[in-house]
Task: structure prediction
Amino acid sequence: MKKFTTISIFALTIFCFCFLQGISSKNILFFHSVATSSHRTAIWPLASKLADLGHDVTYIFAIDPQKRVGYHPKIEEIVPSKMVSIIKEFVADFDINIRLENRVDEWLQTVFTTAITVCEAFYDSPETQEWLSRPNLHFDLVLIDAGFGECAYGLVHKFKAKHIVFTPFVCGLVYDTFGVVPESSSIPDPFFDFMPNQITLIQRTWNTIAPLMWRYNILKYIEKLEPMVRDKMNMTDMPPIAEFEKNTSLVFHNGHFIEEYPVSLPPMFVSYSGIRCEPNKIKPLPTELSDFIKDTDTFVYVSLGSSVDVGKMPISLRNKFFDAFKSFKDVKFFWRWSGPIPQDTPDNVMLAPWFPQLDILGHPKAKAFITQGGRPSIQEALCHSVPIIAIPIFAEQDHNAMKLEQIDALVRLNINNISEDDIATAINEVLHNPKYAEKIRKLSNMFKDRPIDPLENLIYWTDFVLRHDTSLLKPLAMQQTWYQRRLLDVYGFLLLIFLTLIVVAAVIMYTAIRMCYYILKICLRKHKKE
Ligand SMILES: *[C@@H]1O[C@H](CO)[C@@H](O)[C@H](O)[C@H]1NC(C)=O
Ligand SMILES: *[C@@H]1O[C@H](CO)[C@@H](O)[C@H](O)[C@H]1NC(C)=O
Ligand SMILES: *[C@@H]1O[C@H](CO)[C@@H](O)[C@H](O)[C@H]1NC(C)=O
Result:
């Protein structure tokens, strides 16, 4: 009885506290544009938690509902059908061969035009139109995926809502937009894969230019996007997208100093790395999987990511993996596969289109994780302390892998020239050289050592945006131009002064020499006459 009273008083206190704090139910919208499943997976815990706390959450994500990860009974999902088919086509274009044929950069360039088509498809989809035509549709806050989410500013304007931008990693998509000058003298751009301690002058030059090229391409793309959004929403009064960008309340980014170089970011940047790390919530594996690993004490989990069609890899490459796996008689392998299951799959390998990845990595017999090295995968490995072999495919994966390789936290392989022997050696090393398990254990402890639970922190900042204006957190440089932010005008001015001084000095010297010459001439003439 006494316990019961204590509990009720405690509950009442919490209730009053929340009430006084003014936490009331708000309408919150999440919007993804050109995004792979990993973008959704990474931010889903926030949406889910906001719904648990009583907010009305709507989630816009263009993927086949059967294929999406994460479900919450109280979250309304809008799946714009026309957008789904365009994204499906775009992602299907990306198979592993693009990396094998060194066409990643070329493919990346097409993303700007795709983003415009995707946005058009969003507003044209019948699901979107039905949703927008609902009476009393209102949102207080929109959370926008930085991956070409500018399309959502039409919604922000319609609902007169505040907005937060979230980004899978800090890169050229966000630097100048939010007044951040990247530390390009020392930190490699996420799309470059050189080591910061051996950076050359040429690499630093590329490193400096790359974010500017991103920004230039983004501005070109926004120029085309803006009139289209205005038109689709019938909003002739919609201000330029650049104004919405300046009004962004906060930027949530998925980075932590273990997976990222130690980078300085303004107070408006809040990290969400680690919000999926809940080692206590691991569920037992389904019987089919647990039976497979019954007679072994070691298994390796292989997944090259949800967006890479591994089934399309050349058979010769597939056989290198199979042969390497076959040589580990006492080890079982789970491989997240796409497409038909090959006949010659070794007995110790199970291929499936989907695995309960967190439960697998959280299993005590999981001794290695072969991954493409995307941020969420690295974070899962850190969370569950599983040694990593990284085989980067695209985006920031090479960068992530090199960062961690540098501190001996993983073994990195290059898929372009990988051999059966490389794979076997890497597995052997990670399974049997204790330095990898030891290192990941230390990093895992550090990763989870936080002053506040990362998800609680994110909820706090989301509520903060609902309660306050965040102008005071924004970098002043947000109001400046790209060259003012980099002090290029100051250096230009100094150069001008320097050049002027040189010219003035040169003129003075020239005049002086001429004068001396004349004086000398006159003297000489006089001398001759005498
Ligand atoms: C814009 O106007 C057109 C024609 O008046 C209409 O068909 C369409 O539904 C409107 N769109 C929106 C988003 O209000
Ligand atoms: C930006 O915020 C200011 C101040 O709240 C507001 O007056 C303005 O309309 C906003 N601009 C846009 C484009 O939302
Ligand atoms: C594979 O390529 C990488 C970089 O292109 C190189 O550093 C490495 O030495 C190559 N490995 C082999 C086995 O050729």
Observations:
- Confidence is low (pLDDT under 50) at residues 15-22.
- The chain has three domains: 26-275+453-482, 279-448, 489-529.
- The chain is about 50% helix and 10% strand.
